[in-house]
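Deliverable D4.2, example record:
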Amino acid sequence: MWGLVVVAANTLQAQGIDSTALQSLQNAAANSQSQALLVYYQNQPVCENYFGGSPRKFDLRFITPSVASLAIAHLLSSGKLPDWNVPLSKYFPAFNTPEKQAITLDLLLKHQTGLQAVSYEDADFAQAPDYVEAALQAPVARTPGTYFSYNNKTLQLLAALVLQISGQPIDQYLQQHLFSKLAIDATWQHDQVGQVVVYTGLQMTATDLAKIGQLILQKGEWNGQSLIAPIWIEALMENHPNDYLPYGMLWWLIPAKTRLIVDEPQLKQLATAGANADFLEKAKGVMGVYENQKTYIEALVAVFGQNYMQTLSAELSPLGLHLSRKVFDDIIGYKADGYTGQYLIVYPQQQLVAVRLLDSPPNYQADLHKMVNFEIMVQALLKINR
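Output generated by the structure prediction step:
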């Protein structure tokens, strides 16, 4: 079922797959220097393309936490963890302070702990010998539960939590209870003191990552066996609205449609919050209504250059604000996103799973390598949302 396949156009048509859309998807993947593209429909292969290479493991980068979330779901399903709302102070004495006592597991999984975070990778954190200790010592920057801020540092607490509850490192726990059942061969990074790294660095093949997507689609069932109770898979994918993106618990959510808006009221809000005047003047070049992420990113690159992410982070992260505001329709899918173009996408109603992977090139360019329209092109295979 999970082998290398090429599906004929007439077979695709019989399955309800748009063969022209599939060819367009493969062409776009090739043009963006993809190294693996997999599509499975109704648990059957539609496309598996390695673009002249061969199946191998890839660094999944920030898809890693999404996979790690399954360890928490399994602990809940097995009754070893009481519920999402358990205070982290129960497991970490360092959190037994007035400022941190309100931080619960669900806030950690929703990136709402309020603990100090730096967008993307904090250099000091990445160089720390003990990632868990660095997370435990992070100061509270905002009231817990009031603000979404993606936080690599606090994700390391998941490794310590699984170890405390199960007696096993998270890699061994997942191998025993999930990966061995799915025949997944995974490789994890470790920090300098030997703890499993959870915020990035997990390596597996595109086929194995697709199995994770299929497990999500099947609500925790594999080969007739319930590995995780459906209620906990559904909880991972429940929408917890924030001011920027639909998000579950360590999984991004895909709305039927997203509009991004940069207008005078948005820029006025940034100015009131103390944004740099020169930055705001330049940001006027991005003003408009964008019907998808791709056109918005193209505008950002045109105005701020290839390093637009770093520019926006430096200017706006300290303010806790974003350049655009977003308007969302209903949720139709789930996504694990590696940040530099690694994707796992699941459309549950359509029983569609798609994976796109590449090694992050040293000359990474967002407009070339990220393939920001991947989810839209996958939707086109079944005319989802049309």
